[in-house]
Amino acid sequence: MPTKVHEFTWPDRVVVGTIGLPGERTFYLQVRAGSQIVSIAMEKQQSAQLAEKIDEILDQLGTLEGNPFSIPASTPIELVDNDQLEPVEEQFRTGAMSLGWDPSTVQVVIEAYPITELDTDDDESLADVEAEVEVTEMLLVRMPVGTARAFAKRTREVVGAGRPTCPLCGQPIDPGGHTCATPEG
């Protein structure tokens, strides 16, 4: 069966947002072009790392000597998107992701694949089972550098808007209270 690719080459909107209360939030990467909308569930850590790596790529490109690309050092104000997610219909839960740079279009490229479940028998090696796993769909997003910078900024803000962290033990503080798990001296 061929892989269904949800491809967005010049998306109208690409954001990370959440549904739920802090501590119970589900993170979504949502992309829209015209009337086509795809939302994929992600882990909080995936979202944070994606934003960090996008900024790293853009920062590296911005410091390259003789760089022919105009890379914004900060988020262009006209690209800031603080709107809520559009209605979410989860396409898949994200497993593996890759991030790249396409110099021919001056775009950051995100590829996201669904989590795949591996059923193993004792007689099969993990490599044999992975070879049998067939990816049925994926998300491919290409975004210009300004949009990528805005995406990373918003994603960091969304990730940081969760529960506050206890200064003593580093664990999240729930709205109903917190039992600190500091190590006893």
Secondary-structure blueprint:
Blueprint lengths: L3 E5 L4 E7 L6 E8 L2 E7 L1 H20 L26 E13 L4 E8 L11 H7 L4 E8 H16 L25
Parallel strand pairs: 1-7, 4-5
Antiparallel strand pairs: 2-3, 3-4, 5-6, 6-7
Brief digest:
The chain is built from three helices and seven strands; from the N terminus they run E-E-E-E-H-E-E-H-E-H. By secondary structure, it is an alpha/beta fold. Helix 1 (44-63) packs antiparallel against helix 3.
Q: What would you note in describing this structure?
A:
By secondary structure, the chain is α/β, with parallel strands linked by helices. It has one domain (4-160): Secreted effector protein pipB2 fold, CATH 3.30.2450. The protein is built from 3 helices and 7 strands, in the order ββββαββαβα. The chain has helices at 44-63, 126-132, 145-160, and strands at 4-8, 13-19, 26-33, 36-42, 90-102, 107-114, 137-144. A hairpin with a 4-residue loop joins strand 5 (90-102) and strand 6 (107-114). Helix 1 (44-63) runs antiparallel to helix 3 (145-160). It starts with a strand and ends in a 25-residue tail after the last helix. The model has no long low-confidence stretch (mean pLDDT 86).
